Amino acid sequence: MSVPEVLRDKDLMRSWSRSRRCNGQTIALVPTMGFLHEGHLSLIRTAKSLADLIIVSIYVNPSQFSPSEDLSTYPSDISGDLRKLSAAGVNAVFCPAELYHSASGNELGGHREAINGERVVASCLEDVGSGHETWIRVERLEKGMCGTSRPVFFRGVATVVAKLFNIVEPDVAVFGKKDYQQWRVICRMVRDLDFDVKVIGSDIIRDFDGLAMSSRNVHLSPTQREKALSINRSLSKAKLAAEKGQKNCQDLKDLVKQTISEAGGKIDYVEIMEQQGLRPVEEISCPVVICVAAWFGNVRLIDNLEID
Amino acid sequence: MSVPEVLRDKDLMRSWSRSRRCNGQTIALVPTMGFLHEGHLSLIRTAKSLADLIIVSIYVNPSQFSPSEDLSTYPSDISGDLRKLSAAGVNAVFCPAELYHSASGNELGGHREAINGERVVASCLEDVGSGHETWIRVERLEKGMCGTSRPVFFRGVATVVAKLFNIVEPDVAVFGKKDYQQWRVICRMVRDLDFDVKVIGSDIIRDFDGLAMSSRNVHLSPTQREKALSINRSLSKAKLAAEKGQKNCQDLKDLVKQTISEAGGKIDYVEIMEQQGLRPVEEISCPVVICVAAWFGNVRLIDNLEID
Prior knowledge:
homodimer, about 300 residues, alpha/beta, Rossmann fold, Pantoate--beta-alanine Ligase, Chain: A,domain 2, 2 domains, 6-stranded parallel beta sheet, 3-stranded antiparallel beta sheet, 10 strands
C-alpha cells in the first residue's frame, strides 16, 4: 500500500501523465464524483488489468446537475476516499477545486441570457455565473431515458469527461455500466471526436442484497432500501421471462413497472433498448438492455440488466 | 525544399506527431480546406516561428456547410497545394479522405430525424447519411454574424477542429484572423474544454488591390472583384473616421454599409464588436473589430478590421 500522489492542478496533472506516457507507461483514468464504494473499487480493479498506472479523478461536476437536483446534498468523504484509493493501489488522484472557467470582466456571468430568443438550458454551473460556454452534445444518445428527466445531464457529463481526457490524457478510461446511457454517450463521443482513449464499461456491482451500488444509496432509509430492492428483482424477473420466451417488450416493461410500483417505488422510466445505439425495440431479436429509473422517497435510483 | 510527408490515416498521423513530441519537438498545426493562397502561406510562416515542425491539414469539412451552400463548388487543387507546401518547408500534410464515421448497421443514416419533436439542424454531413452525432457548440460566440446566415457553420468548425486536435495533437494551431469569429470560437473552445493547444490568430493577408485573400475569390468575375474592393475600402474609411473621433458605432456601420451597397454589394451583416467576447458595442471605448459579410453575385465574402 503506497500513498497515491494527489494533484489539484490541471497543468501538473497533465505533465505527470505526459511524462509517464513518453516513458512508455500506459495510463487508465477512472473518473468519479467521490464518496467511493465497492462499485468504484471494482472500476479500479478493471483499470489495473488494462494499464500500468491508475489515475482516479474526484470532482463533483456542477454542469451535470440541474438547479433543482441534489448537487448540494451529494455525499462527500474525501479523506475516506483517499484511504480507499491508497489501499486500492492507485498511483495518482486528481482532485481539482474547480474545472470550469469563471466569468471574466467582459463576460456576463453564466450564459443564462436568452440568445436570439432561444431558451438556454441551464445547469448548476450557469447558476453560479460561470464563463464556460462550450458544450459537447451527443445529439441522439443524450435524448430519452435519463436525458428526459435530466435535460442537462449528458451535456454536462460529455463535456466534463472531454475536459478530463484533455487534462489527464489517458490511454484507457473505465466507466460503470450502471450508468448505461452515460457509458454509451461517452463511447460515441470518443468515436465521433477521435479521442485516442479506449473506453471500457465495467459490470454493475451489487450489494449483498442485490441493490446496485451507488453513492446515493446512503440517502435511503432502511424501509426505502427494502423497497428499492424491487428494482433488481424486477429486472431479474423480466430477464427470466425473456429467456423463457417472452419477447414482447411492452409486456416485459409492464412486468418491471408493476413489480417496482407494487413495492412502493415511483417509476421514472423503464425502457428496453438495443445495447449499442440505445434505440427502443418492440420484440427482443438482438442483444438488449432493460433500463430503469425510479424514485424511492427523494432518492432517484437507476439500474439495468443486459440480455444477450 | 524537402517534400513533406503526406499522411492520409488518422492513426499514422497521430503516431507521427506523438513520437516527435516525445522527442521534445514542438508541433504546429495549420488547418486548411486546401486551394492554398498567400494567406495560407502566411499562416505557415507564423507557424514556423512558433514550433519545430509544421503540419498542414487539407480537408473540406462537409459539416460546416449547409446543403444550400457551396460545398460542391468549393475549389480544389491538391497537386498545386502539395507543390506550395513543399516550397513552404512544411514537414507533413494530413489529407484524410474522410474524417467522420459513416452510419453502421443499426444506425439510421444521418440524424435528420426529428428528435422529441425538435427540428434537427442539418449540414452536408447529415445529408450524406453520416453516423456522426456528437457536436461541439460554443453557445454564445457561435450566434450572430456568420452564425446567423450559416447556422451549422461554427458547430461544424468547432467539431472538426476538435477532431484534428485529437488526431494531430499539436502544441500550437494557427488560424487566419480573416475568419475572426471562427478564431474566437476556437479560442473559447480550447479554453473551455482544456485542450492543451496554443491558438494563434494570424493577420489578414490582402492581395495587391486590397481584397482579403480567400479561396472563394477565384469565383469572382473581374467586375465583381472590382466591386468587392469596396469592402476593404469601407473598412478603412470607418477606421479613419473612428480615429478622427467618430465613436458612434451605428454611424460607422452605416458608412460601411453605404460604401459597399453603392459599389453593388449585397450586405449580409456589418457589426462592430469588442474583440475578445464579440459582444456588440454602441460607442467605441475598448478595442473593437468591424466585421463585414457581403455578397457579390453568388460569392459571399467576409472581411474585418481591428481598431485598437
